[in-house]
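Summary of Year 1 activities. Much of the first year was spent building the evaluation harness for sequence design. The harness presents a backbone, in tokenized form, and records the residue chosen at every position. We chose the following record to illustrate the format because it has been used consistently in internal testing since the harness was completed.
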């Protein structure tokens, strides 16, 4: 007799870190990575030239922050097999819209999104972190889980 499958785990969860939620309107920019490679799903700020961006640094002002880097399949993995935008390459940076990110400290729906300086990692706690302007968590999740953010 055949066994009926009633548990399905083959499909992905909410989304991948840095992935765009295409169910909503979005707006992205395409600056080039300046000075070093830039990971997916991290906040970036204006670089030294008009068409460049760097990971958000300590002391960055809200007006300096461009947005959050989006995951793309159009870049090659680095030597350690990690996907990232190589130095000098054009990046997709979400300025408005929704995307998925993994947060080390969890999130609460409606909570402010913060940036860890010098890494660009997004978190939900203030501490010495910098607020990502006009950004809120859309979902409540535990530490290390994938959530969704909205940039307005």
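For this record, the design step produced the sequence shown next.
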């Amino acid at each position: 007799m055949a066994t009926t499958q009633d548990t399905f785990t083959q499909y992905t969860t909410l989304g991948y870190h840095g992935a765009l939620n295409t169910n909503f309107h979005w707006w992205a920019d395409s600056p080039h990575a300046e000075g070093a490679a830039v990971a997916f799903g991290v906040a970036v700020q204006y670089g030294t030239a008009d068409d460049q961006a760097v990971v958000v640094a300590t002391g960055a002002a809200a007006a300096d922050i461009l947005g959050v880097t989006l995951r793309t399949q159009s870049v090659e993995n680095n030597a350690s097999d990690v996907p990232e935008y190589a130095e000098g390459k054009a990046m997709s940076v979400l300025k408005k819209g929704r995307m998925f990110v993994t947060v080390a400290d969890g999130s609460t729906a409606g909570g402010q999104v913060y940036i860890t300086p010098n890494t660009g990692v997004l978190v939900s706690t203030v501490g010495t972190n910098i607020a990502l302007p006009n950004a809120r968590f859309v979902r409540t999740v535990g530490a290390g889980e994938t959530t969704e953010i909205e940039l307005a």
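The chain has a mean pLDDT of 92. Quantitative recovery figures across the full test set are reported in Table 2.
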